[in-house]
Amino acid sequence: MTLAELAERLDRAALTAAAVAQPADLEVGDAYLVQGLSIDRRRRRGERVVGIKMGFTSREKMRQMGIEETIWGRLTDAMRIPSGGTLPMARHIHPRAEPEIAFLLGRAPDPDEPAASLASAVEAVAPAIEIIDSRYEDFRFDLAGVIADNASSAAFVLGEWRPFSTGLAIAGLDVALELDGRVAESGSTAAILGDPLLALAAGVRLAARYGHPLTAGDVVLAGAATAAVPLREGVRVTARVEALGPVSFRAV
Ligand code: OOG
Ligand code: MG
C-alpha cells in the first residue's frame, strides 16, 4: 500500500466511523507524511488547520497506551466543538475524552527557542477537553500507526481564554475530568512533561521538523494530564483546571 492509499484509508475510516487494521512496517517519518496527506484530503473538503495537539506528554497516557514517545497531530476547524456543545457518538468509533490545557500563540515561535522564552509567544491559555478516537480496531496501535492516524485526534473543546501576559503559573494546577458531575480522573498540569510549556516547546520543535512550522493564531493542545475515559451516549463531560475554570460538552 502506498502512503497516499494509507492516508485515504485512514481518512475514510474517520469519515465513516469504521475501524481499520493497523499498517505494518511503517516508519515514523513516513507516518508523518501519511498524516499530512490525510489532512490534505480534509483541506480539499474545505477544512482549515488551526493548530496542533501533543500526544504522550504525560506518564499516565504513556502507561495507558504503551507508547513512550511524544508525538503531535494536526487540528482543524471542523474538529472544534463549541464550549457547552455536543459530540455526536454516531460519527465516532470508540471515542474517549481527556483533560488538557490549550495555548494560543500570539507570534510565530522559533523552533530553537528555549521553553522559558517561548512563554512570550503565548497570548492566552484555556482549559480544554480533547476527544480522541483511534481509527484502528480495539484502540490499539504502535508509534508509527498512531502518528499516521493524526495522533487519534477527533474533536476538541476549548474553555475561556485567559491572557498569558501576566506570566500565570501553569505548572502544578489541579485538573479533574468529570462524567455527569462525578470525578472520573484527576491529576495535575505538572503531569504534562513537568510543565505544559515544555510540551509546547516539544510541539514547536517536532512540528517544524516535520514541515509544519507554527504561527500566530495557532492553538496548541499540550496533551492529557490524566488517562482518557471512554464516552457513552448522553454523558456530560466537564474538565476543571485550577485557576483556568471549567469546559464541557455532552456526548449525544
Ligand atoms: C493518542 C493521542 C494521545 C494525549 O493527550 O496524550 C494524546 C491516543 O492516546 O490515542 O492525545
Ligand atoms: Mg490528547
From TrEMBL:
EC number: 4.1.1.77
Pfam family, one: FAA_hydrolase
Gene3D superfamilies: Fumarylacetoacetase-like, C-terminal domain
Keyword Lyase (UniProt): yes
GO CC terms of this entry: cytoplasm
Cleavable signal peptide: none
UniProt keywords, alphabetically: Lyase
Span of domain Fumarylacetoacetase-like C-terminal: 82-248
Broad class of enzyme this protein falls into: lyase
Highest taxon, organism lineage: Bacteria
InterPro entries for the chain: Fumarylacetoacetase-like_C (IPR011234), Fumarylacetoacetase_C_sf (IPR036663), Hydratase-Decarb/MhpD_sf (IPR050772)
Any one Gene Ontology molecular-function term assigned to this protein's record: 2-oxopent-4-enoate hydratase activity
Protein name per the record: 2-oxo-3-hexenedioate decarboxylase
Organism from which the protein derives: Actinomadura viridis
